[in-house]
Amino acid sequence: MGLLKFDGSQLPSVLKFLKSREYQPLESNEKIQKKRLKKLLIHCYENVPYYHDVLVESGVMVGNEVDLTKFSNIPVLTKEIIREHFEDLKSKDTDERKWYLNTSGGSTGEPVKFLQDNVSWDHGMAGKWFFSTFAGKDISDKEVKLWGSERDVLKGSIGFKAKIKNMIFNRVLLNSFRMSESDMREYVKTINKKKPVIIEAYVQSIYELSKFIKNNNLEVYSPPGIITSAGTLYPEYQQLIEEVFGTKVYNRYGSREVGDMACSCEKGEGLHLNLFHQYIEILDDKGEPCKPGEIGQIHVTTLNNYVMPLIRYQIGDMAIPAENEQCSCGRGLPLIKGVVGRQMDVFKTKNGRVVPGEFFIHFIGVVYNKDFISKFQVVQKDYESVVIRLVLRDEIKFGSYKKKIIDSIKDVMGQDCKVEFEFVEDIEPTKSGKYRYTISEVK
Predict the structure, then answer these.
(1) Share of the chain above pLDDT 90, in %
(2) What domains can be seen in the chain, in order of their start residue?
(3) pTM of the full predicted structure?
(4) FRET partner for 360 with CA separation of 20 to 30 A, picked from 123, 179, 204, 371?
């Protein structure tokens, strides 16, 4: 932390601010959020060509005043719009800011490029560390990170800068892109030796490691907490991970475009939003706010990235509003019930029914998988056409459950739905390391 202060980073002060506001009243914290949102909108009106006319036409800017009651009139920002209007979305004072080029993870299609400034990076990293404190971790505490390292795969090393960063943060990196049986045995040894305060991991990676540990009757150190990210933490995953490691799993949600947005706490009543860094909306297909329990599309407004602000950005994920706005833990941070997966990962029937990916995870991956399916991926080709890609361990066992799998899918997708199977050698994750269980090609 001292090195960051010396470097002029705002991260230490932002983290201190977040901790100071953690248990303040929600209403008080929301006032701060609204002030940041108004300040951002004024900046966009004065400095971002794309938004200058948009904010006037939507009624948000009246003279030099901001009317937040008209905020929902601002057109939704999509990846296509970012690609088409990239230059006009940049702030006129870009040259006066320290910024860098970034890209989305690309798990919903072709990655999109965007700019982020160093101030936004500081806020994002402070938010990530703030969420880690939910699991009991201080900045200097020992950590094991089971994460993707493309450089390690291609060049055999994570690189000098990464090694220095891991040393500063007292962190050991385990490469989730390399997870053979021998790799996983070494990972268990490392965890037992390091005895970290937390393990931070891709959902799929820590789940696969947990299965390996259980199937091989291995002993593994139980850290105070595990934080999962970069995927949906399905109930079956959480149950197994907590059983194997004997600890609490904290579910964190974020993206490369906007940083970490939400994280569960010790109560597990939902995910707390970092309302100081993002303004989140969960909207239905008509653009109206979803009611508690309804599945809607997540729209994000970044509050601290002034070099290329994203306003009402349709990120491609879907979520469910919480029944209660606040958690019984007492934190003054609003809740969402959970994130149900990528937008394309949610299937739709011809009559408009939404079928979350959890259904396929549960029935194909849990109920009817008696250890004969190694990997699977379900692709919705059309409203009445589903293809299941399988990596099998045992074809005979699969044959005895094939009809049950088909019948279960027909029960939710419709009896006219055609279910086909495609047998493959492997199913690779995306470049960002995310494993896509369900893909919908229905637009």
Answers:
(1) 48
(2) 1-340 (3.40.50.12780), 347-440 (3.30.300.30)
(3) 0.77
(4) 179
